[in-house]
Q: What sequence folds into this?
């Protein structure tokens, strides 16, 4: 969703618009701060926080213009994270992301130029537009959290989180991420269009935006200009929150539910490729983070059911016969969830 | 009388050699006395056929006649022509002496000598026509009969199945799990199943099938009737120090009563 309010008008956001039970100050603070510029999309904000708290990576899918970049930038600024954005294109090179060694003519020595990947939160916009070589360079960095430039290996900052976006509609000239690389993303969340109330509120807030003056000239403010630059949380808060997530209890019964669901994806006749064990890890860790965000000390089936779609769907591939019969992976997942009982 | 009955047989034309079958032989017989003739009732199947071809009176005053008798044998053997000769008045010609002839067969031994014997037909179609026709009729009837019987067997309704066992309702499935939970004897799988069944049970009662499972659980956790048990189950199964002690009272309705008696009218 597009953003709206200038930093000085925080009071415009109705407190009731942000779901909060007061049980998790970290979550409440981030949500409140993001809600200053983003209308609705609470689930997406939650997924971004889950990715941050667990060190996973997030793939966002949605049509253009629903605020993917804005949400990520708002979360980054709310927690005082370094933020970089790379628009992926077909002619992008791995060195454009990772960095390279350049010759300093004055000292006649090679100097390391670090790429935009040296950040806390990297937004890889339209990742499927880049060539497979660039995609694998990024995904390798996501996995290992370090990159090599020349002969030197550089560790990426902590935390390091990649949030990639994909446009599911326009597919010409794109390179679809293969299953093995999709598996690197802990969550893949599909954006939905905002509700009528939210969309109206977006329009209302955009009307409240003022002009940004530069000398004698002026340009209209955009939603990005309205993001509050004052961080409400810092890296230390994030680290403490991550530690708190580690303390969330995951019972044996919960583990059994997660493993059973993942194993069901491997046994269903309509599923050609089931989920990897990495899916179990993602489900368990993401559920633990969600439990923390909801102020609980233990994970419950609600976490597991809420995250199943984002964790499971991009890790399973339907068989040709199932696709020919018009079956959808969402229907199959619902069937698997029902079969758990 | 004796003189009158004297028979003079002059074998003028009697062959010395045997006569082959089917070939006409001839003898000349001079007879004095009542005129002779060939036996009139010789059957066609008689092994020897005799005919009196010519009768000529002699010039002698004793009224003798000369007879030319032809014979044809159809079965090899020795015969006496005398047996086939009669008086014209029908009386037997006992006064004649034996007139032997021998009929021989030119065919190999054991070939058979019966000219009138009909050999076995080369095909049985002519000899067993009725039998073959009956077999054809049976075959003609057997094919459709076989088809009809087979079809009848196939279409025979299957034996009646035993009445289907009604699928256990959620409440039926819950009851043994609730008992196990109160006894503390549930396995890990059964504990997980108990929790998910309770969620499904209350989702059905609250008609939450149209919302996602996560939303359903969220609503049930705020439901005045469902939340006490669900939260207690959560505490028991998922919290670090959960215990089933407080569950006994909450699970009692699922254990002791029929599902219809549960609060809210569950099935």
A:
């Amino acid at each position: 969703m597009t953003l709206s309010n200038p930093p000085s008008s925080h009071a415009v956001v109705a407190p009731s618009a942000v779901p909060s039970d007061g049980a998790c100050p970290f979550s409440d603070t981030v949500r409140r701060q993001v809600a200053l510029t983003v209308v609705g999309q609470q689930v997406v904000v939650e997924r971004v926080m889950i990715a941050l708290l667990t060190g996973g990576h997030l793939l966002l899918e949605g049509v253009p213009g629903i605020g993917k970049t804005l949400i990520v930038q708002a979360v980054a600024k709310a927690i005082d994270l370094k933020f970089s954005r790379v628009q992926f294109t077909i002619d992008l090179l791995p060195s454009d992301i990772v960095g390279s060694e350049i010759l300093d003519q004055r000292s006649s020595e090679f100097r390391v130029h670090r790429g935009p990947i040296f950040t806390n939160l990297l937004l890889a916009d339209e990742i499927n537009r880049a060539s497979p070589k660039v995609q694998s360079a990024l995904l390798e960095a996501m996995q290992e959290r370090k990159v090599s430039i020349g002969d030197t290996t550089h560790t990426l900052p902590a935390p390091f989180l990649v949030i990639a976006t994909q446009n599911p509609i326009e597919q010409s000239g794109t390179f679809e991420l293969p299953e093995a690389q999709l598996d690197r993303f802990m969550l893949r969340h599909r954006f939905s269009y905002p509700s009528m109330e939210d969309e109206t509120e977006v329009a209302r807030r955009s009307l409240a935006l003022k002009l940004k003056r530069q000398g004698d000239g002026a340009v209209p403010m955009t939603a990005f200009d309205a993001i509050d630059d004052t961080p409400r949380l810092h890296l230390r808060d994030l680290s403490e929150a991550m530690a708190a997530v580690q303390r969330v209890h995951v019972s044996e019964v919960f583990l059994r539910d997660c493993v059973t669901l993942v194993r069901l994806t491997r046994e269903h006749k309509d599923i050609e490729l089931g989920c990897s064990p990495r899916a179990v890890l993602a489900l368990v860790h993401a559920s633990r983070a969600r439990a923390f965000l909801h102020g609980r000390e233990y994970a419950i089936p609600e976490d597991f059911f809420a995250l199943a779609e984002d964790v499971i769907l991009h890790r399973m591939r339907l068989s040709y016969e199932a696709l020919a019969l018009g079956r959808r992976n969402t229907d199959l997942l619902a069937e698997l969830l029902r079969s758990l009982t | 009388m004796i003189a009158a009955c004297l028979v003079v047989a002059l074998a003028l034309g009697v062959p010395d050699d045997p006569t082959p079958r089917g070939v006409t032989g001839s003898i000349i017989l001079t007879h004095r006395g009542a005129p002779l003739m060939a036996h009139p009732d010789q059957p066609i199947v008689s092994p020897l056929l005799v005919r009196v071809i010519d009768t000529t009176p002699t010039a002698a005053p004793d009224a003798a006649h000369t007879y030319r008798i032809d014979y044809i044998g159809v079965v090899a053997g020795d015969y006496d022509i005398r047996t086939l000769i009669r008086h014209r008045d029908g009386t037997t010609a006992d006064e004649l002496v034996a007139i032997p002839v021998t009929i021989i067969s030119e065919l190999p031994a054991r070939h058979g000598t019966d000219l009138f014997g009909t050999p076995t037909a080369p095909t049985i179609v002519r000899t067993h026509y009725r039998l073959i026709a009956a077999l054809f009729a049976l075959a003609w009837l057997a094919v459709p009969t076989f088809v009809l019987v087979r079809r009848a067997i196939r279409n025979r309704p299957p034996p009646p199945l035993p009445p289907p066992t009604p699928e256990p309702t959620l409440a039926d499935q819950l009851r043994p799990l609730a008992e196990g939970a109160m006894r503390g004897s549930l396995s890990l799988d059964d504990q997980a199943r108990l929790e998910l069944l309770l969620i499904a049970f209350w989702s059905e009662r609250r008609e939450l099938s149209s919302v996602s499972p996560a939303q359903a659980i969220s609503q049930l956790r705020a439901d005045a009737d469902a939340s006490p048990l669900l939260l207690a189950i959560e505490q028991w199964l998922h919290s670090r120090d959960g215990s089933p002690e407080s569950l006994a009272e909450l699970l009692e309705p699922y254990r002791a009563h029929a599902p219809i008696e549960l609060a809210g009218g569950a099935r």
